[in-house]
Each structure stands twice: as C-alpha cells, then as structure tokens.
Amino acid sequence: MKDRGASRTEAVMDAIRSRIAGRALSSGDRLPSIRSFAAAMRVSPSTVVEAYDRLAAEGLIRARRGSGFYVASSALPPLTLGEEGGGRIPEVDPFWVSRQSLDADPDAAKPGCGWLPPSWMPEAALRRALRNLARGESSLLTDYGGTRGAVALRRLLLARLVDEGLQVSGENLMLTGSGTEAIDLICRYVLRPGDTVLVDDPCYFNFRALLRAHQVRVVSVPYTPSGPDVELFEAVLAQEGPRLYITNSALHNPTGATLSPQTAHRVLVAAAAHDVTIVEDDIFADFEPEPSVRLAALDGLNRVVRIGSFSKTLSASMRCGYIAGAMEHIETLVDLQVATRFGGPSPMVTEVIADVLSAGNYRKHVEELRRRLTGARRAVGDRLRAMGIEPWLMPRGGFYLWCRLPEGCDSTAMARAALAEGLVLAPGNVFSVSESASPFLRINVAQCADERIWGIMQRSLNACSQSEPGAAVPGR
Amino acid sequence: MKDRGASRTEAVMDAIRSRIAGRALSSGDRLPSIRSFAAAMRVSPSTVVEAYDRLAAEGLIRARRGSGFYVASSALPPLTLGEEGGGRIPEVDPFWVSRQSLDADPDAAKPGCGWLPPSWMPEAALRRALRNLARGESSLLTDYGGTRGAVALRRLLLARLVDEGLQVSGENLMLTGSGTEAIDLICRYVLRPGDTVLVDDPCYFNFRALLRAHQVRVVSVPYTPSGPDVELFEAVLAQEGPRLYITNSALHNPTGATLSPQTAHRVLVAAAAHDVTIVEDDIFADFEPEPSVRLAALDGLNRVVRIGSFSKTLSASMRCGYIAGAMEHIETLVDLQVATRFGGPSPMVTEVIADVLSAGNYRKHVEELRRRLTGARRAVGDRLRAMGIEPWLMPRGGFYLWCRLPEGCDSTAMARAALAEGLVLAPGNVFSVSESASPFLRINVAQCADERIWGIMQRSLNACSQSEPGAAVPGR
C-alpha cells in the first residue's frame, strides 16, 4: 500500500518534471491546482500535495504561502566535489592535510589522514544505538542539552578518569562540540593576542592552524622518543615565557612516541616554576597497549587541562569532545561555550556515544583495533623500509608511523606529486613550526590497505628525489 | 533467547554488585576469574565477560589490561542537577537566561526560554529519519564530514535562498556547528579586541554574551516596530565607527517586530557609507505568515552575511547552523572552522535534518506551528493584559511577546522571585545594552500551557511591585 502510494507520488513528480523540462511550464509559472491535477492524474489531492512538497524541497518549484506552487525562478547550481576547497592552488600549510583529507572521496586512499577507515569502526553498535535513539525520549530528539552535556556520558568519562587515578567530580568535567573545540575553548579562556604558546616540534598540524586563529606567537621544542627535549623545554620557558603548552602525552602525534615518567615530572616542575598552563590532548589513549604516564594524573588537574574525544575509536561523525580541569576553569568554559555555540554536543550524539560505550563490547572492539593496528604497523613499516622510507621509531600503539624519506627527498614535493594522482599524504613540514621536517612523512597504517597506493607512493618518491629539497619548502 | 541471555548477564552483575555492597569484595580487590565465576554461576564465560564489561562501563569495577578485573578504587560522585551551574548565586547577566533554561528540568515550565516544547516538534519525522540513518551508509556513521558540510543539506538550503531572490551558489554557503557558532565564526573573522560592534536595544541576550567573549566594545540603537531607529543608527555609525552590526530582520528577538523596506534600505545605505559588515540572523524565518524584506536579499550578500539554523522549527538537539555570504568570506570561514573545531556539524545530524526537510510534510508541520502560535499569542496576550502586563506589539509570527510590566515593577526582581518557585523568566535588562528595559519581560507563548505558571507569575509580579525598581537592576 505504502509503496503504491510512493510510486503514485513519484509519477506526479515525474509529470511535473517533464513539463518543466519540455518548457510546458517555465520559470515563474503557476503549477496546476492540487485539485485539478489530482483529477487529471487520477490520484488523491494529498498525493499531489506530497509530490509538490517534494519538488519544492528539491528546489524545482516553490510554494508561495496562500497562493499555490510556482516553477522556481532559477535552477540550482550543482554542488560538485571540485567546488570544495574553492579550486585554489593549495598552499602546503597547516590547513593543507585537513582540507585534502576531509574533502576527499570517502573511498579514496588517504595515508595522510588522521582517522581509521569506516570498516574499522563499531558499525553494528552504532546502528543499534541509532535504533534505540529512534525509540528514545522526545526531549533527546528535540531539545538543547544541558550546559555541561549529557549526564550519562559524563558518568562514563568520570569512571575512566577516576580509573586513571584522577580525583575528579562532576564539577571538573564538561562535554564540548569536538576535541578540537575543547582546545579552542581553553585557548580563548587562557590566551590573548600576542601571547606566546609552546608546542612540540613536530606537533599535530591543526594545533598550528588553531593557534593562528588566536593570533599568538608560537614557539616549539624538539620532541624526542621520550617526550619534549627537557633542557630546551626549560630554556624556552625561561626565555619565551609561554602562557600555554599543548601536547599529546601518549602516542604523540605525529611521532607515536610516549612521554617518560622522568620527562613528565620535569615538564611539570618547569611549568610550575614559570606558571604555564598545559593542555594534554589524550585523544589516542585507547590505542595504548597499557596505560603510560599522564601529566594530568601527576598534576591532579591543577595546571594541566585534559581533553579528548571519541573520533578515533568510536566515530568521527559523532562530534563530541570533553574537558577535564580545575572546577573554576570549567565554570568559565561552560559559560564560554554557551556564549559561542549555545551549548555543547548534540544530545542525540552524546546519547549514541554513551550507548556504544556502555554496551559492554566496546572494550573488545578497542582490543581488536589494537591487535589489527599492531599487524598493520609491522606490515606497512616493512613495505616502507623496502622503499628506503625509515620509521623514526616503532610506536607502542596507534596508527601513525613518522618516517624519514631517503636522502635528498622533500616530503612536500612528494605530497604534491601524490595529490596529482589523488593520493593524500601528510608531509613533515605541516607538523613542524621550525619547518625542519621536510625529510619526514606521517603515514596512517590503517589507510594503506589499497594496493594502488604503493605504486603512487613509489612514483611520487621518485619525482621528489629529482627535485632539490629547498625549493618546495613553503615560506612562512 | 536474547532475553534469557540478558537476564543471565544481569544476574552475574547483581551477584558482583551485592558482593561489593556486602564488602565481600572491596576497593582494589581482584574479581573472580571469568572461568571460575562462570562455573560458579552456571553461565557461559562470555556471559561473565559481558557482565564484567558492563560493570566496568558503570565504573564499579575496572579492567586492567592483561590482568583481569578489579573493584574500582573509588565510587563515582553523583551528578545531580543541583551541581549544574556550579551552585553559585546567579547574577542576572546575559548568561542568566541560558544557564537557567538550558539546565532546567526538561518538563519544567520555562516562559523565559527561546524554544518550543518537544511536543511541538516533528517527532515522528525525526524518529523515521533516525531509523533511515540506522540503515544508512557507513561513512555517515563513522567519518568526519566535508569542510563545508553535507551536500544534501546545502542543496536544500540553496533552494530556499534562491527562492528569496538571492543569487547564491555552492561557494556562498557553509554549514556550521550551530547558529550561534555561525555568528561566532564571523566575529572571529571580522573583529579584533577593542573593535566596536553595534546591536539593537533590546537584542537577543546571547549576542551580548558572545561579544563579551570577543572583548569588543558594544554600542546599541533603540529598536522600533519597523526596525532600528534610523536617525540614531546613522548617527552611531558616524560617531562610533562599528565594524559589525548584528540583527534579526524578521520577527526580531525579543520584540517580535519586523524590519520595514524603507528602514532596510536606509540601514544598507548607511552601512555602505561607513563600511559596516552586517550579520542578519534569520533563525525565525519559518515563523513568518509571509516573507518580509531581508537585508541579505536587498544587498545580495555583498556586505550582509546571512546565518540561520534549524533549532526553532525542527530540532535543537540537531546542532547545525549555516552561513551564506560572499565567496571569499566563506573560503576563510571554512578554514577557520576546520582550525577551531575540525569541521562543521555531525554528518549524522545533517543527514537527519536533510531527511526531515525533504520528506515533504515539513511545510505542513511549519504551517501547523504558525497556526498554533497565532492562537497561543492571542490567548497568552489576553491573560497577560488581565494581569496588567501589556505586549509592546502583537508580532506577525513567532513565539515571543515583549511585554511591559505595570508601573513600578522591575522584571529582574520578578524573575528572581519566579526562579525561587522554579519558573524561568527572561527579564528585560538581559536584552538591553543600555540596561533600560527593566520594565520589560520576554514571554515565550508556547511555554505557557502549564496552568501552574500563572499563579507563580502573579505572585512574583506582586513581589516585584513591592520592591523599588532601581535596587534590583544589576550594575555593569
């Protein structure tokens, strides 16, 4: 019955479409009245109304309130992927990888991107959670959420933080629109234009993009396999007086290195001596084989603010992050989020996340991810070495390999060559404030399953070996 | 079968709970091994694993990687509504109404809030859209979206904008995390600390909260039933040199007034003469009985930037807004949104919105809303008049009545008295930069169905009649 109704609606829509296509109806013309066209098509008036409404939603016709339907004044310009990014020649800057990978074809191979393929995500659990949501409370589907975000999800997060040894309560925690937005809120709260911010070199390229938006001075310290170079860290704090230090402690992006307890302790001592606030971005926590030291846990959320999200292990479509910090900071950050986006994540999104996290088999899913990633890191590492591309270290977990290209190769030139063949790579200098990482490339091992990428990698590597390094490094 | 499995899991969970409650297992103790406890409970090991995982998700126990499960080191602090807002004595500032209404009980009566009750929203369509999404493409459920937001929803928005006579293409449009976030992005793009921004007096209180976050100087012009007072508008532009003017053209918040064509034209001429950018917040567009003049349509997205969202007519839980503006602005705003939140709205949210908008009966839903609101404005208006509370004007649409209290009544005092009885009101001065609106109150007619509010309204009105006005007006 429903199907026959639907097909009748389609028939009416097609009839109108063909009249417009055939110029029987042209721009601005009034459509046949509901009643007369229903009679002509031998369908019920409600079928015609349904058809007209759908055509209006498509933009082909429009409803003029109180006076029927008219052929739309102009056709819609097509939205093509080509339009994305505005067709400009892309500068290889801190925005470059985000633009290329976010707007790439979902099925395109993206060894440069920072997330797992859909097939690695807990799809069944997400679909079940959505079915539950479709039967859920009305207010979840229609209302704004509370200013700190859904209680159910905050409970689950508190459980994890307490587990880590953090003495936290509800007043220390808030949900945000995304992990990036969590860092942005903290920056808005702590920073003023002209302030100095310290990051690792290399660091996640979007930290650089984010800090540009805050018009601050960015300084960096080299990152070692056990954390930032501590001597230089202490020197920079003394000389540059940064207000803020942004870092990943576990499975550092892009290197995959992990902070050592000794380094963590010295970093905190130096930060205390120079009154520096630290943002610890813990987004890769679940990929660790076993937990490593955390600045937030050592410091007890005194000068360290912890942020995270669910984009890497659960879903990046569920835009949601969190901030754990000192109570008085959270108070202000909650007001700031209300003022700047009228609250946190979508209540429907937080409901889905809480459902998947509490379903029980989430832990098994994450263990499976770790198992698969261990294999992928090994296999991809071997193939890269065979091409003369050396991992800087073999990380304990996660999906990144920070690799050094053969002598004389510039990764920016290689990334340009690869993009010309539709392959998105992440060249070293987008991660480097000092622009000193042109021989490096960040490879996402989970995005290397497609055999075709290896041919493109080899060709772009050959291409960039010919180009002399200096030339392709973008100026600041 | 599934149910029996679930009940067995529950039984195992209860057994562990009671051991912890009875101190047979205490903080830090290792739980029985999966195998032994499965034997003891006569269930399969997988049932015990499921039970332990759920208890871990609840925070009662924790999984130590590789070494089994332990009783969590500390119980979770309860998250109660009392904790929301941090328990401080609320200052009646531009954040006040947001805090009170966002964190209020979903079923609480909130004549002060800015949205419709869940029962007014297209619940069936939302549930259908969620069921469709549960069967949808994997990448929708797991991936980040494109930098400009979902193509399907942008197509529908373009259709509406073209309808209004705007010559727009895909390059003029982007989706944002919310309507407020759209304004915030534009402010970050246009404003620098110390700049001057012009708003209406009264204006939406969150414009004031948002601008505080940008550390700008805020000036205002009185709003008349046909738009801003044009003489004063021209004078303020000449004297104060604002960079930006933020306003609602149709069904202005809080007054419900509508911009007249003559005023619109003069506003644009003056803005051009003084090179002022205008943000036209069109969030109430769908509530108009018939379309009125729009600055964006007159100006052709030259110096006017249009923003909007779906929170008022479709769902506030679907956090999503949009910006329509000049192509070169959109380019930069897209990068800014990637830098500060790594993209726009949740792809799953935009999919649900596009589904509901294109289903066809959305237009009927909105017509029904308009019909109900016309009745509610009349009925609530009559009851208010009977209490000596006079609507400043009867709006053409929407759910706000901007009302003047009887002589000598101060709305801030009235709102405090009402809050003491659990009723959230929106006192005039939170909308007024000049703090000159203490005799006014914004009433949401759709939130007045609960009979009990009228007794509270009367008592708080009596209470504030006794208090002398000046006293309760908050200092700046």
Automatic annotation (TrEMBL), chains A, B:
Keywords: DNA-binding, Pyridoxal phosphate, Transcription, Transcription regulation. InterPro entries: Aminotransferase_I/II_large, HTH_trans_reg/aminotransferase, PyrdxlP-dep_Trfase, PyrdxlP-dep_Trfase_major, PyrdxlP-dep_Trfase_small, Tscrpt_reg_HTH_GntR, WH-like_DNA-bd_sf, WH_DNA-bd_sf. GO terms for molecular function: DNA binding; DNA-binding transcription factor activity; pyridoxal phosphate binding. Pfam families: Aminotran_1_2, GntR. It comes from the Bacteria. SMART domains: HTH_GNTR (SM00345). Residues 6-74 form the HTH gntR-type domain. PROSITE patterns: HTH_GNTR (PS50949). In the C-terminal section; belongs to the class-I pyridoxal-phosphate-dependent aminotransferase family. This is GntR family transcriptional regulator.
